[in-house]
User: Which sequence fits this backbone?
């Protein structure tokens, strides 16, 4: 899996999860339980990882949705 982006924005994560589920893109949200360990101060970002063979599809989907600025490498 390849890291696509990092964020603390729970709404953005939820939106991306819905988009990826609809388009059948394999993904994993890493570090989502770390916020409870760090006291919810927000310094640990969640990472969205995508299946290697679907990374281009995932990037294209986010760019088409106007979320290209959120991508790790544009």
Assistant:
């Amino acid at each position: 899996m390849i890291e696509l982006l990092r964020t603390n924005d729970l709404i953005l994560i939820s939106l991306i999860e819905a988009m990826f589920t609809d388009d059948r893109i394999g993904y994993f949200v890493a570090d989502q339980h770390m916020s409870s360990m760090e006291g919810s101060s927000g310094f640990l970002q969640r990472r969205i990882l995508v299946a290697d063979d679907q990374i281009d599809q995932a990037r294209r989907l986010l760019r088409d949705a106007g979320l290209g600025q959120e991508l790790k490498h544009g």
